[in-house]
């Protein structure tokens, strides 16, 4: 059995593998929300309840991906369910790629300006890299089309706008607050790049399946 088999559509679509991935992502999602606990509490303490949904970026991306995997295990049986599935899948890919890359870039940008990395930082580098990789890997099993992808990109831009208009972006290494405008620009550009990656990878997957 070649190594390429373990990256194949056949292997990643097996139910035991999907269940393993679902469990890992659910656990990561729970941990992520706990990680954001202080920032969520801070937002609530200021009475900005409507902003809370925009605070935990990475765990929400992981939540989208977990739901997308669950819908692969138990496909919807109605047209409405299929439409919802496409939207969830598009959100899962765009946000997982975006926040996976974003977190790793921010960690190393902070290190470049003098931040000392600890073991939690390396854990975040590994887990967020995995977020981006698994999202692009599973595009081959997803069903989203351009309409759902456009909505996912719009939602992510809305999240960016709330983050930097109201100051609820993920807390940064202290060294980067002097470069907040550059971080904001990078965040917006990364949304575009992630949307493009989601579109190109889906287009490639459709092309391969038609061959």
Automatic annotation (TrEMBL):
<dbReference type="InterPro" id="IPR009845">
    <property type="entry name" value="DUF1405"/>
</dbReference>
<keyword id="KW-0812">Transmembrane</keyword>
<dbReference type="Pfam" id="PF07187">
    <property type="entry name" value="DUF1405"/>
</dbReference>
<keyword id="KW-1133">Transmembrane helix</keyword>
<feature type="transmembrane region" description="Helical">
    <location>
        <begin position="182"/>
        <end position="201"/>
    </location>
</feature>
<feature type="transmembrane region" description="Helical">
    <location>
        <begin position="48"/>
        <end position="75"/>
    </location>
</feature>
<keyword id="KW-0472">Membrane</keyword>
<feature type="transmembrane region" description="Helical">
    <location>
        <begin position="17"/>
        <end position="36"/>
    </location>
</feature>
<feature type="transmembrane region" description="Helical">
    <location>
        <begin position="122"/>
        <end position="139"/>
    </location>
</feature>
<feature type="transmembrane region" description="Helical">
    <location>
        <begin position="87"/>
        <end position="110"/>
    </location>
</feature>
<protein>
    <recommendedName>
        <fullName>DUF1405 domain-containing protein</fullName>
    </recommendedName>
</protein>
């Amino acid at each position: 059995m070649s190594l390429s088999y373990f990256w194949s559509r056949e292997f990643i679509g097996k139910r035991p593998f999907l269940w393993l991935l679902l469990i890992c992502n659910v656990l990561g999602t729970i941990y992520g929300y706990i990680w954001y606990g202080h920032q969520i509490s801070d937002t609530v303490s200021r009475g900005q309840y409507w902003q809370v949904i925009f605070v935990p970026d990475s765990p929400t991306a992981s939540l989208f991906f977990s739901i997308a995997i669950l819908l692969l295990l138990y496909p919807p049986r109605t047209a409405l369910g299929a439409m919802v599935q496409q939207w969830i899948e598009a959100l899962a890919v765009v946000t997982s790629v975006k926040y996976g890359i974003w977190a790793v870039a921010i960690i190393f940008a902070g290190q470049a300006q003098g931040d000392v990395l600890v073991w939690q930082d390396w854990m975040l580098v590994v887990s967020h890299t995995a977020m981006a990789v698994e999202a692009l890997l599973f595009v081959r099993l997803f069903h989203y089309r351009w309409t759902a992808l456009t909505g996912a990109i719009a939602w992510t831009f809305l999240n960016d706008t709330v983050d930097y208009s109201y100051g609820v972006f993920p807390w940064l290494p202290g060294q980067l607050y002097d470069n907040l405008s550059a971080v904001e620009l990078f965040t917006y550009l990364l949304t575009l790049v992630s949307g493009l990656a989601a579109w190109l990878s889906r287009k490639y997957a459709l092309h391969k399946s038609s061959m």
